[in-house]
Amino acid sequence: MDYTGSTTNIDIQIGVLAEAIDHNPNDDTLYVERGKLYHQMGQFDKAQNDFQRAAALNPANREAESYIELIQEIFNYRYKDIYNP
Fold it and tell me: Interhelix angle for 44-57 vs 28-41, to 10°?
């Protein structure tokens, strides 16, 4: 996938992956790919959901686990005041 595209291109890619997920809901790699796009757009909550779904479907998916850890670090940094008043 081309991750250098515009937001519109990314939105199209997300739509294509959403359709693919509808047809193959147990394919963990589709969730990882869509999660990467959400991550690229800064939609970390949606990205986290996709990576967690991928990890649940395939606990051996190290890429999903790596992204989960990365996003958790982002959440800990960005929202520290929210979680730790």
Answer: 160
CATH architecture, range 7-83: Alpha Horseshoe (1.25)
Q: How far apart are CA 77 and CA 23, in angstroms?
A: 36
Contacts of 76 by beta carbon, 8 Å cutoff, 6+ apart: 83
- Tokens read off for 38: 């959400």
What's the pTM value of the predicted model, to 2 decimals? Answer: 0.81
Cα 52 from Cα 67, distance rounded (Å)? 9
More confident residue, 32 or 2: 32
pLDDT one-digit tens code per residue, 6-34: 668 999 999 999 999 999 999 999 999 99
